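Workshop exercise sheet. Pairs work together: one partner reads the sequence aloud, the other fills in the structure field after running the prediction. Swap roles for the next sheet.
Pair: D.N. / O.F.
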Amino acid sequence: MSDGHPHTASSATNTPSGVLMSGVRRVTALLLRPLFSQQIPIAEKLASFCPPAETPEVTSDYPAPQLQSLEEVAARIAQRCTGCGACVRACPFLQEYGNPRDIAQQILSGDENASRNAFECSLCSLCGATCPEKLEPLQLFLAMRRNAVQHGAISLKPFKRLISYESCGNSDAFSLFGLPENADTVFFPGCTLTGTRSQTVQAAFEHLRSVYPRIGAVLACCSKPSHDLGRQEQFNGQFGKLYRQLHSRGIKRIITACPNCHKVFANYAHDMEAVSIYEVLAQHPPQTAAQDCVDRQDAYHFPPVAMHDPCPLRTYPAIHDAARALTLRSGADIVEMPSVKSRTLCCGEGGATAAIRPDFARQWAEKRSGQANGKTVVTYCAGCTGFLSPFVQTAHVLDLAFFPVKTLGGRMKPARAPFTYLHRLRVKGRWKRKYFR
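Structure field:
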């Protein structure tokens, strides 16, 4: 779908339809203001609307991961880490708490407080990418989080909003399983992208239907928040339930748009193929958007952009290349920043670190925005675009793919909470009526 040629904001809102939509938005905001006032945190309101469900039982038809104990992981890191400091130089968390060998030795010495410190790590795995010994300290930090939760050594109250967000995504109110007969492929757009960019998600699904005529769609949460918060029992139960629903209907391929969802399916649904929508679009580009680019080659010029690779996908070079191909196809030139692809930086949102160490999160965001040097940062993670937006202008690759002129002109505005929840409900309702009666 093309967004057509540029037009001024005033001309758009002065049309009858523009005036009507502006009025609808204002009325909706007035109606929602009491519900989402600042006197009561939004997490508490959402928790009452989407109460945490009982953790589903893990059954034999879901191959739950067999994880090593914290002591086993710590012993391996303590033995193999040389303490060279390569990872420390890049990470504010390690600069404060020491190299992975030091942290592992703390664990092995019985330090009861050490596990809690892992909640200040962004879980971005840059330490593994820079390690000359090819170690993965991320596994140590995840094991520390699981251990702290299991032994009640950490309060999860600072993460209440994130846990409520996950509960909403898995609730009957927000989830949708549109699984046509004989479908083996589903589109799994993720919670944040659907809420912030419902128009783009709609355009993406329409295009995917032209590539996979029997494609289904699932609106649900992959439960990575529980995974990263060390709530392993909750993750196994919730993702196991999602896996069973897909597996029982013969689903073999998951087309993801969210980096976190992609990593979860790739790591924990081994008999299903996780394919990014960026790879699909690079091979089957939207023709209307492509034509729009051709039509405007001589009429429009936009400054170059900087590409930010989401840290969950640092080990997926095919996705890195596909995102760049789509960006170039939109008409934008890319100037690469110093830390990209396998050496990409965290945007600051990773690991939910901002809930307890906002200074660490801010350091990541400021470093990335500084590397952009005033350029618009293009990425393929809705979370990254949102977290970086106070520091630098951002754009999403999917917006570029389907609405290039509007996006490069800075007029593609993502929705913000609480309207994101309404957008998710609207997408669910539209898809149920139009595709999955």
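Discussion prompt: The first helix runs from residue 9 to 13. What would you look at next?
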